[in-house]
Write a structure and sequence with these properties.
Layout: H1 5-23, E1 27-34, E2 37-45, E3 57-59, H2 64-69, E4 76-77, H3 84-87, H4 90-94, E5 100-106, E6 112-119, H5 129-168, E7 173-181, E8 186-195, H6 204-213, H7 217-228, H8 231-234, E9 240-245, H9 247-252, H10 254-259, E10 267-271, H11 280-292, E11 296-302, H12 306-315, E12 319-322, H13 324-327, H14 334-350, E13 353-356, H15 362-370, E14 375-376
Parallel strand pairs: 8-9, 9-10, 10-11, 11-12, 12-13, 13-14
Antiparallel strand pairs: 1-2, 1-6, 2-3, 4-5, 5-6, 7-8, 7-14
Helix pairs in contact: 1-5, 6-7
Length: 405
């Protein structure tokens, strides 16, 4: 059974309070050994004048904890000042430290997490091995409580390291999928899509969701946008590029900063969010400078759920993108056709244009034309590929005719 972080915090804190009271000590704490330092993760302190606080730290070598673990000091000291190694530690005289008990906290793989400790400023000759056994019991119980938490924090650090490497080294590619005007089969735009070659092999949405979980979604989205916009250096006066960004990234301001140097009239920004947004007004204000310079807004995944319709009503996009699930076998599904037709009629009233995503068959394409849908993309019309695949073969920097829809 998984125990929540809050429950673990309460259990460990209760354990410290219990052992401190039981042994008649002034301070009890759980420390972690991390990068050469002893960090106080949990503290129960009955003496405010003793400077032991949660998140405080000091060099591991200058601590009682390290010297108990490596055997230079015993787990039980009835009077710390009686031990030569203890007298070399400044805290022995400054606090001063009298009675001191400390035992290692070992995880199931044998690693030492830190120590479970308590001490008092007064010596205590009544302490004995039974008290040490009590401390070991509490330490073992605490280790079980924090095991999963420690593993999760380690995974978190590993994820941050991985994504920082992805960002610093641009360990991702951008593929461009053509957007076709159905009236004349002309390519009028490209959607820029991130691709991640590093193992484990996963879809881009998994990468972005994982980045969001560690607070790096915005950084990753902006990095992809910056790389995608380099196409303007290759293609002059060409079709527009459609970029994806979450509301959180839009609100950060970093996206606007990345887009402003480029020709906004050739940029479409797709809002990618499957949940309802709390503050549409702030999003509108964040992108208003870009829209005034000609950037168009698209709402993605229309027809996939209530949230996309709310985005449409609140953000008033120039483009509405029909979700792949709505297009798949639209030639055979009457309800999908009806919903698509309703969105087309709504878009006409709202002054928006409709883009159908995920077109894979000629039969689906025929239905879209019958419904009056202007633009489409999908494997039938072109798979995502490097930009060079869509440029004239004679020259990578040749400029095709203006393809603005």
């Amino acid at each position: 059974m998984t125990i929540s972080h809050r429950a673990v915090d309460e259990l460990v804190q209760d354990a410290l309070a219990s052992v401190r009271t039981l042994l008649g000590m002034e301070v009890a704490f759980l420390s972690e050994f991390c990068d050469g330092r002893r960090i106080f993760r949990y503290v129960d302190n009955a003496a405010d004048e003793i400077p032991v606080r949660v998140a405080g730290s000091d060099p591991l070598e200058d601590s009682y904890c390290q010297r108990v673990v490596d055997g230079r000091l015993p787990e039980l000291m009835r009077d710390a000042s009686a031990y030569a190694h203890a007298r070399t530690i400044p805290a022995t005289a400054i606090i001063p430290v009298g009675a001191h008990l400390s035992v290692p906290v070992r995880l199931s793989d044998g690693r030492i997490y830190g120590t479970f400790c308590c001490f008092s400023r007064r010596p205590d000759e009544s302490l004995g091995e039974r008290d040490v056994s009590t401390m070991r019991c509490f330490a073992n119980m605490t280790a079980k409580f924090i095991e999963e938490q420690v593993a999760e924090e380690r995974r978190h650090r590993e994820l941050i390291t991985r994504y920082q490497r992805v960002l610093e080294d641009e360990r991702f590619a951008v593929a461009y999928q053509p957007i076709v005007r159905l009236a004349d089969s002309r390519v009028v735009g490209y959607e820029a899509l991130a691709r991640f070659p590093d193992p484990p092999q996963r879809t881009p949405d998994v990468w972005f969701n994982e980045a969001a979980a560690i607070g790096l979604q915005g950084s990753l989205e902006v990095a992809v946008v910056r790389k995608a916009l380099r196409l303007f250096a290759l293609v002059a006066d060409a079709a527009y590029v459609s970029l994806n960004a979450s509301p959180q990234t839009i609100l950060s301001g970093a996206l606007a900063e990345a887009l402003l140097p480029y020709p906004c009239a050739r940029i479409v920004l797709e809002v990618t969010e499957h949940a309802s947004v709390d503050d549409y007004a702030s999003i509108a204000r964040a992108i208003d400078p870009l829209r005034r310079r000609g950037m168009r807004l698209a709402v993605d995944d229309a027809g996939a759920g209530y949230a996309s319709f709310r985005h449409i009503l609140k953000l008033q996009p120039e483009l509405i993108k029909l979700d792949t699930s709505l297009i798949r076998q639209i030639d055979k599904d009457r309800q999908s056709r009806a919903l698509a037709a309703a969105i087309v009629r709504f878009s006409e009233e709202a002054g928006s244009r409709v883009v159908a995503e995920g077109v894979e068959t000629e039969a689906e394409l025929a239905v879209l034309r019958d419904l009056g849908i202007e633009l489409a993309q999908g494997y039938l019309l072109g798979r995502p590929a490097p930009l060079e695949s869509w440029l004239p073969p004679s020259s990578a920097d040749a400029a095709p005719a203006n393809g603005s829809p």
